[in-house]
Amino acid sequence: MTKLNVVRVNNESEAAQYVHEYVKNKLQNETLQTIGLATGSTMIPIYKCWVESTLDFSEVTAFNLDEYVGLSKDNPNSYAYFMNEHLFQHKPFKQTFIPDGLAEDPEEECERYEQLLQEHPLDLQLLGVGENGHIAFNEPETPIDSITHVAKLTDSTLSVNGQYFDNAEKMPDIAFTMGIESILRAKSIILIAFGEKKRAAIEKLLEGKVDVHWTITYLLTHPDVTVITDLQA
Ligand code: GLP
């Protein structure tokens, strides 16, 4: 087990600056051909900073972590819509991939996505974290060797993420997600977590023990993880 690189910041704009410098260096050294991207409010300042910068992603292929099953890319609650809104319509990428929420055969869609990931090894994966410690939609007790799959969302996730839906009943209770193994294959990982609601998850991670109930702790088995947080443990 290797030591996590923990970066304490005072606010979201410092986090965005850190990620900007990190990505800029990788682009300059030509070590960023593929990037894994995340959704969620934590990522908004990061993408805003990229959009306002001169960073050039036109030779970079992007993969997103997850998508709700049943939502089209035109649905404002879909992650495809989020990515277009906050990043892709402003910054050109070489190619962007996200699971197809409307895929007719979800199992086949998982296989297709996992295959694409294996063909394009990720140089860097960005992650947020759920209040229950999930990364992507790998809910508690997801095995470490999981690959892209359809996840059943827990009550905790349904209630936290349900607030973004105008009617919580419209929120799908299943989602496509990259698995833990798919995420851990990335060469480097940056996880960003802000605020008290993420304290339990960050404390579990910093305790340094892998715990199947907190899938964030699987990151402890990866050799190159940077955690950017405003939390003082
Ligand atoms: C969702 C996503 C996760 C993300 C989490 C945190 O559940 N599936 O990938 O990390 O939201 O979102 P936020 O940044 O809004 O707290």
Short description:
The chain has 233 residues and is of the alpha/beta class. Helices cover 30% and strands 18% of the residues.
Explained architecture:
With 233 residues, the protein is α/β, with parallel strands linked by helices. The protein has a single domain, classed as Rossmann fold. It has seven helices and ten strands. The protein has a seven-stranded parallel beta sheet with strand order 1-10-9-6-2-3-5, with no helix packed on it. The mean pLDDT is 96. The site of 2-amino-2-deoxy-6-O-phosphono-alpha-D-glucopyranose has 14 residues, from helix 5. One of its GO terms (biological process) is glucosamine catabolic process. InterPro entries: Glc/Gal-6P_isomerase (IPR006148), Glucosamine6P_isomerase (IPR004547), Glucosamine6P_isomerase_CS (IPR018321), NagB/RpiA_transferase-like (IPR037171).
Strand order of the largest sheet: 1-10-9-6-2-3-5
* CATH architecture title: 3-Layer(aba) Sandwich
Q: Mind telling me the C-alpha Rg? A: 16 Å
Choose one word for the global shape.
globular
What order do the SSEs take from the amino end to the carboxyl end, as H and E? EHEHEEHEHEEHEHEHE
Main beta sheet, described? 7 strands, parallel
Characteristic key phrases:
single chain, Glc/Gal-6P_isomerase, Rossmann fold, identical protein binding, 7 helices, binds 2-amino-2-deoxy-6-O-phosphono-alpha-D-glucopyranose, globular, 233 residues, seven-stranded parallel sheet
Compile the SSE list and pairings.
Layout (H helix, E strand, L loop, with lengths): L4 E4 L3 H17 L5 E4 L6 H8 L9 E4 L1 E3 L10 H10 L6 E3 L8 H14 L4 E4 L21 E4 L2 H8 L11 E4 L2 H5 L3 E6 L5 H9 L17 E5 L4
Parallel strand pairs: 1-10, 2-3, 2-6, 3-5, 6-9, 9-10
Antiparallel strand pairs: 4-8, 7-8
Helix pairs in contact: 1-2
The structure holds 2-amino-2-deoxy-6-O-phosphono-alpha-D-glucopyranose (GLP).
2-amino-2-deoxy-6-O-phosphono-alpha-D-glucopyranose binds next to helix 5.
